[in-house]
Structures are given as C-alpha cells and as structure tokens.
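Priority: medium. Attachment 1 of 2:
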C-alpha cells in the first residue's frame, strides 16, 4: 500500500545501523533520529531489527562470509589501535561513506591544515548509510565549498541525450511522451 518492500527496507536498516554505530553502541539505534525514512520504525520494531541484524551477522560468520559494511564494522573494532600514518587523504564519492568509515579515515591522519579533502554529491547518494561528519570527528566548518554548477551534464548534453532517446525509443522497446 505504501510502496515499501520489507526485505529492501530491512536490508537498508541493517546497512544504516552498521554504518552509524559501533558494535558497542548498537543499542542506541532504538532511540536515534532516523533521517531519510518517510515511514520510521517504532522502538519495539527497531529492537526486532537489531535482533535480526545480530542473527544475520552470526550467519555470515558461520559460513565465513563478510560484506563491505561488515568489513567496516570489523575494522572499527580496532579504531583505538589505528595510528595516524598519512599526511593527507583525498576521498572521492564521499557520499558513499558511512560515519564509521569516515571515523576510520579521520584516525589515519593527524588533524592539520589540508589533512582531508572530501568530495562528493549528497544528492547522488545510492547507499543507505548514516553520514555524520561530526560523529566521525571531522570538523568541516569554515573549510567547505559547495559547487553549484553541474560540470558533468550541461543543458546541451542533456538535450542531445533526450533527443537521441526520443528518436530511438520505439526501437528500444518503449515509448516516450
């Protein structure tokens, strides 16, 4: 009725939790603000999500498999042992990084001038991850710049692409209006 697909919704919640909270802080999920969800879960449902996530991670461990968000959780378990190794780090597509990943990156370098260079397009977000610079220990105040001009697709490029699609739509198997 609300165009919610339960399996996708739950998987996205798993990714959100694992990108936002270390294993020790997972219980905070039941009360945390959940931005980006039009239909937020009630606290008792969030407890069920945490139980499901725990079972999912146990199953993954039992069969010897780990996914990319699980890898971040594992690395984050050693966050206090990470020593600053690099002078500067450049991150492209930072919108795909969760809070825990950003915290790991922050630990890899000492805080100094020109230590981090983060680029990304928040509107282009594909993954369901929490993205909190402050919680990751990254201070961007006064050090950020927003590009308002789209350099990837100019109006002329978009018009040309639309015309090609429009002229070839029938041969591609669909109609344009």
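Attachment 2 of 2:
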């Amino acid at each position: 009725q609300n165009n919610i697909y339960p399996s996708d919704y739950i998987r996205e919640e798993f990714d959100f939790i694992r990108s936002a909270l270390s294993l020790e802080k997972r219980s905070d999920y039941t009360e945390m603000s959940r931005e980006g969800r039009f239909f937020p879960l009630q606290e008792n449902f969030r407890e069920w999500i945490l139980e499901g996530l725990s079972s999912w991670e146990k199953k993954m461990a039992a069969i010897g498999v780990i996914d990319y968000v699980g890898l971040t959780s594992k690395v984050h378990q050693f966050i206090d042992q990470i020593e600053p190794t690099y002078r500067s780090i450049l991150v492209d597509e930072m919108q795909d990084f969760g809070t825990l990943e950003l915290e790991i990156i922050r630990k890899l370098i000492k805080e100094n001038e020109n230590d981090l260079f983060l680029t990304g397009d928040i509107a282009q977000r594909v993954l369901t991850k929490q993205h909190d610079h402050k919680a990751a220990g990254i201070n961007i105040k006064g050090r950020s710049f927003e590009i308002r001009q789209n350099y990837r697709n100019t109006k002329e490029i978009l018009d040309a692409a639309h015309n090609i699609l429009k002229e070839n739509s029938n041969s591609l198997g669909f109609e344009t209006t």
